[in-house]
Structures
1.
Amino acid sequence: MTIAVLGSTGMLGQPVTNELIQAGFSVRLIVRDVSRARQLFPQADIVTGDLRDLASLTRALQGIDFIYLNLSIRQTEKQTDFHTEQAGLTNLIQAAQIVGVRRIGYLSSLVMRYQGMNGFTWWVFTIKREAVRLIKASGINYSIFYPSCFMESLNGTQRLGPFVLLVGRSPVKPWYIAAHDYGKQVARAFRIATAGLNQEYTIQGPEAVTQHEAASRFIAAYRKEKLSLVTAPSFLMSLGRHFSPQTDYGWHITESLNKYPEVFEAGPTWAELGKPEITLERFAAAL
């Protein structure tokens, strides 16, 4: 089985790609920047492909059995921009249909379920929901993963130099998961996938903690440098969101993360794909 990965060089794409390779799959990386991908995966099969270009995708997907998509909307994107999970996904599905790809795996979102709750609406979640619909309507078997918060965000999107930044306080307890544990689950899902049957999995980590508890535990276990936790009032981001796409993104994602009433749903996932093992302390210490 040969799996094509799109989004392999990102924060979450790298560990998932590594787990697929370690699981013994033949993996082809479809990228725009070959040199960067080659630095990260020197032994991988790497080809050029652009989600804006149907012809390049059709060439890159020749001989591919499964696709794994790690796509995202950048914080700086505007609603009118080109989006990989919208027009890009449409091109990808068309190319997959042309060459006969047998399955599409897609990293979706759990918190996008907050759309419509408490009067909340956001174009980003509209696109993510539409992406799921497009994949399901493609006629290609699919494996869709709906994750809770990733531990990587504590050292990525929420890191600002020596600070871990949170906005507001929330009693909600997400089930933080490490991307390597998630990658193992993706590999297992592909291994047990049966032709003609689709897969949908809720992805949650080993324990539920508030965002502040997660950040505090991460900071205590991090060894590379001293970090501090900073909590910004949510109203400051609300004021600035009308002037900056990045701030607007930050306000919306924070509002949904702080208020989405996440509950444990990953029992069936653990039964089929294995229980995640990486704790916040283990994750931080390994960086």
2.
Amino acid sequence: MVQLDVDSPATPRTTYALELARRFEATLIGFAAADAYVFVPGDDGGMAAAEIMRQRLTEIEDRLKILKEEFLAVVGDEASWREEIGDPTRLLAMHARAADLIVAGAPAKGAANDHRRMVDLGTLVLSAGRPVLIAADQLAPPDPKKVLVAWKDTREARRAVIDALPFLTSAQDVLVATIEEQNQKNARESVSDVLRFLMRHGVKSRSEVLDVGKADACEAVCEIARAMSAELVVAGGYGHSRIREWAIGGMTRSLLKQGATNRMLSN
């Protein structure tokens, strides 16, 4: 399922996702949503809000129509289309039930940071129940030969390794890297198990245990990705639920900002 922003052209991300779908002989689903809700305080707020919502609803419907036409012009008969009016993050997470993988990306440069019109990637990773592939800013064809697995012995990282197997089996260089936190012996045993698991699934991989001391672990992982020219970074998406929102962890936040490479996050 490829997520499209109502305020950005559909073609670049659609082309990226279509190449990925063809490589894995998968069906592509296009999805776009935006919310027309507005709050206007004051005694006359109700009437004013209703008029503004009517105008926004018409504008969103027009944009969705344009996106759909552009999407279908690219994919032809190889895909299907879904659209909704409402919170784009919540609705995409709900529709993710129909897909194996969500393809998303950072908003276009200059786009307003309005979560009524674009997806909150951190919240999406933590709530979708599906792996999220966040495309690199350049939207290069997603056929990674060098992959970094940012390993931590957690449920999220174990899920990420499983989800990424279709990419890992075709990669030429897979590095499983972990940060030594307290017990180096445990870190090495954990990584060794991952290497053996990958080997049984036909993945040739190597490992590295990093002792970063007091340095920033997030930056260390990003530096490894740059040093090996990784075309894909695989990691668990970490966070926790508050009463009305999802809060993401530091590593996940750092990876979301690394637009130079593709990132696949699972929770």
3.
Amino acid sequence: MAIFWEQLERYQPVVVKMLTKSLEKGRISHAYLFEGQRGTGKKAMSLLLAKSLFCLHRSGIKPCNECRNCRRIDSGNHPDVHVIEPDGQSIKKEQIEMLQQEFAKMAVESDRKLYIIEHADKMTTNAANSLLKFLEEPRPGTVAILLTEQYHRLLETIISRCQVFSFKPIPPALLANYLAEQQIPPHIALLAAHVTNSHEEALELGRDDWFAQARKIVLQLYEMLKKNDLQALFFIHDQWIPHFQEKQQIDLGLDLLLYIYKDMLHIQLGQQDKIIYRDKIDNLQQWALSCSQRQIVKNMEMILQAKARLNTTNMSVQLLMEQLILDLKEGKAFV
């Protein structure tokens, strides 16, 4: 899918302004570091910058997205644009050495060569040291773009040789609007936009029947919690556990439950604009009347503790959820 500067400017206005100004003045740095959360547009921005440099029919700084070079960059087949990804769990010294050998050759189709290193923080120590030498003695026309979600794990010496751009988290409202433009129902779009900051993941969730059913199950579970322990426990066995099977799915389900309590808290604080389950506003207002702020906060803490246990212990899902249900009903936290 073609990406344009105007699109990315909606989500990363500061980064786009600085990069486009550099392009307009012809002052391209030899090395950039794009840092920020997953899904904030770092990869899309790096490919758009590459196309702006290699496009055969550029209009000002805007690539056409249709010429041979633009298409080859999109498909990963341009001979002068190289993307390095982790080989297994890390980026190895051999990968950086092969890159150096490739860049020692003349550019195939222009006087410029560009490389993108994804998850640059996953370089081994030897790989990072090899890259440092590469950055210290850049060849004319060479542009490096390093992408990372773990800025603090990079060598200070590497960071100091790059122009650093920080990518801000995409506001959920903007992401929800994007999903709505893709024909995702509003109640699903807003929830997906809070679950992830990634356009691709949010769109995938928005189109997934599993996610829509997960939302329905979580809302039903809260209704059960308002009744009695036995019904809620039966519901966990009959509905929750069969649907939320993998650890990532269970963690997501707990997030969806947490958002219900957050919404009730927002109602009590008069922050209706922050509500996520907006199609359930009448129910939320009724539920909020039956709980104190202290109780809501305590229940949110219980859910967060359950998430922590899920990710740090081998506690069975059944036992984890049963204990959470009983704790939410009795109003006591994990010990």
4.
Amino acid sequence: MKPAPFDYVAPKTVAEACTILSEAGGGATLIAGGQTLMPLLNLRMSQPFILVDVNHIEGFTGVTRVAGGTRIAPATRQAAALNDETLASYVPVLVRALGHVGHHQTRNRGTIGGSVALGEPAAEMPACAVALGATIEIASVRGTRTIAARDFYIGPYMTALEPDELVTGIVYPDWGDSHLVLFNELAQRPGDFALTGLVGALSLDGGTIARAGLAWMAMGPTPVAMAEAEAAMVGQSLHEVDVAALSELALRPTAPFDDHHASAEYRRTVGKRLFEKTLRAVTQVKEAA
């Protein structure tokens, strides 16, 4: 099929984009990489009457250091982020996860902001934002605001964004020089969405866990933060954590679903094993070091 007719605009500033969105009254859709949107347009599952291309907005690409964290502009390509030295140094969890996002062809077009804003519950970028405690910057004609990633996702492909708003940046807080990266997922094929998976970071003070950030992929209608497991880990010695007990806590907030890829029970069982395997591997590597 071909897309339904629409007008195309390419604003040069955030203010111009916000004005277009406001005047469209909910009839406009943003496009950056278009890796998800273009199939939806072709299938007429999305039928905006205005397509707003954000790729020409000044300052909408790039990675910068800000106070206490690292900021990614929304139209930054996934391929560029994957090879960015600043992200490799300060947000290695994100770089690790990016290697599992689609394929190198799609990462050349796909954007960080597009993935975060879409909110696919089985995708890596939303889960990273939730796990790491990222803050999402938002703009509209009414002004600017920020929202924690953990408050941003409210349902499948549903976020706190209003129809006249757009994401202008994502800020990932620093986790310290000694933090550990946790990532594991199971997919049917490399590049597919996860059947289940987890991502996170542990900040250490000596051998003690000072901070924990963990989130599930494909274990509910949104990325799922493992809040109880995080709280239980803080203050514990990394080498003495009760992995089995933590895995039970990690599963408590999940609501896995049945679909044609896997059952809820499969996701729950495999997710628990992935959690235990990943946490034990991190503990053993640190202990050996």
